Protein: Hotdog fold thioesterase
Organism: Bizionia algoritergicola
Amino acid sequence: MKADEIPHKMLNQDAYSSWLGIEILECEIGRCKVGMTIRKDMLNSMDKAHGGISYSLADTAFGFAANTHGKYAVSIETSINHIEALNEGDYIVAESVIESVKNKLGFNIIEVKRGEELVALFKGVVYRTNKNWE
């Protein structure tokens, strides 16, 4: 399976990312860019986007990019820094770029942006299995 086909297959099988309204904007080996709009049902008690929303978008970009190498890849450690609050109607984009690839491990940094403004920074470590995407 070609690298850019894998994230589309993953999204078609991912009920949660589909519910979030995530769309794939760009994809190639080692890189994936996704976007979504913040909805009212994603807001917390302070009328701002729940932190899990930007985390989920970044995590989806992370997973999609990690799998573009053709092997099933799963996260083993992730973290996020929330920099700016998000509001209903905001369109956010997360881009995952493989920073370093080892035999079994990949290290990613994912920027989440609202326009050109950095709103969150996500870091992740992925483990690549021996199983191929078909």
